[in-house]
């Protein structure tokens, strides 16, 4: 079974969705550890209650990005994971860190990339007046919120939407597509071809976790 390490910074609802999918038998992975850069991340408590090893490495205790990233990589590599899953991990990662995990580092971003990289995606989508918004799971490259797209979910922007309403509807989609993307990885179905991700056919005929429309 593939081993994953999840990195969080706060609430950890995407992490919870991964744990729930695993517990429901829909995600065949060993969640070896959850690591946060913030000691007070709520998700650490959730992970610990689920019996998962937790660690925090406080970025404020390091002189710079490279030093923090080196300590983080050392902690991650101690678990020898097949995949590192960024789930609301609010740190820009150095190029060396990203290269070290090339092809085995995934992120979820609350917009339809390449639109709206960075922060405040829902507010910016409302300000731009887009009619379609959503979320993206992608392999990480050194450019922030960029990289080969694994899966996206799109939702309509409704006339009455404010930032909270829109972000809540996008988050529900995040909780569907992240377990799906990690499952595809665990099943060995994702292949990187330059900037594109190829999804191979199901090997054992099991139904996909979510609607075929999202595949
Ligand atoms: C999510 O919207 C995720 O896409 C973004 O940060 C948020 C984290 O939420 N990267 P949570 O910690 O998973 O609840």
Instruction: State the shape.
Output: globular
Average pLDDT: 94
CATH class of the largest domain: Alpha Beta
> Which class of secondary structure composition applies to the elements?
alpha/beta
Bound molecules: 5-O-phosphono-beta-D-ribofuranosylamine
Radius of gyration: 17 Å
Tell me the domain tally. 2
User: What is the element string, with H for helices and E for strands?
Assistant: EHEHEHEHEHEEHEE
CATH architecture of the largest domain: 3-Layer(aba) Sandwich
* Helical coverage, percent range: 25-40%
Query: What's the oligomerization state?
Result: single chain
* Amino- and carboxy-terminal Cα gap: 23 Å
The tally of strands reads 9
Briefly say what this structure is.
The chain is α/β, with parallel strands linked by helices.
Key terms for this structure?
2 domains; Rossmann fold; single chain; two-stranded antiparallel sheet; 215 residues; 24% strand; alpha/beta; binds 5-O-phosphono-beta-D-ribofuranosylamine; seven-stranded mixed sheet
